[in-house]
Design a protein that fits this description.
It is a single chain. Helix content is 74%, strand content 0%. It is mostly helical and 311 residues long. It has one domain. It is globular, with a radius of gyration of 20 Å.
Length: 311
Amino acid sequence: MPDCPAVLFYPETFLTNKPSPLFIKTIIFTGFTLIAFAANSVLCRLALGEKTIDASSFTVIRLLSGAVVLWAILKITRNKNSSPAKGSWPASLMLFLYAVTFSFAYITLDTGTGALILFASVQITMISLYVISGNRLHITERIGGSIAFIGFVYLILPGVSTPSVTGFSLMTIAGMAWGVYTLKGRDSVNPLMDTAYNFLRTMPLVMVLAIAAIGNARCSTQGIVLAVLSGGIASGIGYTIWYVALGGLSAVQAAVVQLLVPAIAALGGVIFVSEAITLRLTLSGIMILGGILMTIWGRHYLVQLKLNKKT
């Protein structure tokens, strides 16, 4: 079925004195989600890159802690969550597939290369499925998405190296799985319930992974803490907020805005680790933001321009 227009396609909701509640909620929740995604990337790289924990254990603890945290939130708010929504098995499978392939991919990939493969796969998957479902990309979506992606590549280019075949394949699968998982969330009527049950449904696969990898498990206290923070906070709560934000984003918008994640992570390094603000970061940030704005609002402005010319 063709994609329904998303709230962010209409900039007048932002330019008027009283923006719509849906617009404000979408902006706020999208911002929080992108910050959570950036934090998740940092936590994953700290845990796996520093070899404080093995990939299997990290994935098991990450998904288990996400399920526990979300289930606890559901119990606390049970009177406010009477919706019958309970996620889906396909979404849960995509969540598990993303988590496990992401972890194992980073064993052989550096940060820049992994990010490039992951986000390229996400973009291609989501936009391809959007087109296959009967939608057409507007010229501003094509140009804006391309500009944002070029800015993203320019940002991470110094950290890119030739990937291993295994790492490339695993991260490509991770990106495809995450793209499908994201699209599944656009129909969510109760993001908390859906996300909680999606995490809970991964538990059988988590148990299989834990049993299969028990002989090679390697966990330090630091690795376990990082996995819990990644799963319980950045993933569990972050993915719930993402499902809320998706209610106001089109598939193309949802795909393109995620290119901000590496830029936010880099900005976090400037703020919290006193890293320098480089020309590369500044230029890439402008390109990514400009491309996103063109993707979100370009169609509307061109339509309005044509209408004004006719009148």
